[in-house]
What we know:
The structure holds 2 protein chains of 2 kinds. By secondary structure, chain A is mainly α. Chain A has one domain. Helix content of chain A is about 85%, strand content about 0%. Chain A has helices spanning about 5-20, 25-45, 50-70, 75-80, 85-90, 95-110, 110-125, 130-155, 165-190, 195-225. The longest helix of chain A is centred in the last third of the chain and has 30 residues, at about 195-225. Chain B is mainly alpha-helical. Chain B has a domain at about 55-185. In chain B, about 80% of the residues lie in helices and about 0% in strands. Chain B has helices spanning about 5, 10-45, 55-85, 85-120, 125-150, 150-185, 200-230, 235-244. The chains are: A mainly alpha, B mainly alpha. The interface of A and B includes residues 159 and 184 of A.
Amino acid sequence: MPVSAWDVFLLVLRRELTLSFRRPDQLVQPLVFFVIVTTLFPLGLSVQLSLLREMAPAVLWVAALLASLLSLDALFKSDAEDGTLEQLVLSGQGLYVIVVAKTLAHWLVSGAALLLVSPLVATALAIPLAAFPTMLLSLSLGTLTLSWLGAIGAGLTVGLKRGNVLISLIVLPLAMPLLIFGAGATDRAIAGTSALGACYLLAALCVLTCTLAPFAAAAALEVTLE
Amino acid sequence: MWTWFYRLASPPYVYRVAALWLPWLLGGALLTIGYGLIDGLVFAPPDYQQGDAFRIIYVHAPSAWLSLFAYVTMAVAGGIGLIWRIKIGHAVAAASAPIGASFTLAALVTGSLWGRPMWGTYWAWDPRLTSELILLFLYVGVMALRSAFDDPNRGDRAAALLAVVGVVNVPIIHFSVVWWNSLHQGATVAKLGKPQMPGSMLWPLLAMLLGFMLFYGAVLCIRLRGEVLNRERQSAWVREAIKS
């Protein structure tokens, strides 16, 4: 019986999500990391509300980038180690669909989970409530883009033993525009001006990566697994 | 008519041709850089605002231009190697990466030396400086990825893929200059957009640009010959070539 790409997508997505929820500690660790990193900054700075508010977007975004990076290493690695990835590649289904499903699953358990925690962190960083919608929108677009970029990095380094540092080296330069627009949007929202421009650009980056990055990530997997 | 082009895919042929090109490229580079340095550093008039410090441009601008040129060369060569599985493409990419990284570093260092007297600081988080720094990180990432693999074939193809992905990012970084500026207004930038330069200043600069291109070509030839020898060290023709 032929299987449609949609079936494959749903199957892989469900498998990934099930696996993630079976290992809740790995789910929670990046979030705890995110909270800890963001609380380190107010402790390091002298607690002046105005200073904190100025730093808040940068702190929030850098911490989000690092927290997402932390879980990227596992995107393909455990599947590559136990041979599942090779079976997926050999299954004859397009690698593109599999990469899309795995990356979306990764975003749901890392990026989207980050969104749930971010209001708490934002409150701690003295970001005003009025800036929350923009912050959440920009963070959701940003973390999704980062997951696509990270899929490329994870695909390129999946066969390597010491790939963890290399992923950061590969992904972080690519993610710099993200940080610029993301922190910019949050900054503007805090200042009370329209952050639409930066959000549009973030959305454009997101569309660009979610259409093109799976091709690159699939090609990377083919290179490293062959 | 295309045979000369197809033959460029053959390592022994490239090894020989690179040796033939080398003296011409090197000679041309010496001549043009020599003229550019003498004319630029000695005969060109000092700038009415920047004085003699502006002469750093004769090293800085060509380095910055070559840092981008070498990256695109690397990405295109890597792409050729990736798509058509032409080994020499990967060899060119591997040879080009350290040269491009060096040019990037040179552009950053000369830029900050220029920034000290002009802006009063070695480094500013100015979009142009930052994008050049990102370029350096991209180079480092590509080189690190290539050397991280035990199997050189995989390393080549992974690095080529990353280089191609990075080239998509280069225009994004470049345009972010404009957007970033609009967010952080009032950055002090020495824009090189369309410099209204008199000929006495412009000609040495163009000569230096050409000279740097030729120099890049010459170094690329040398490095490429080394790469080809190293990659083909198991084959019979290398033994022949080394013996003779």
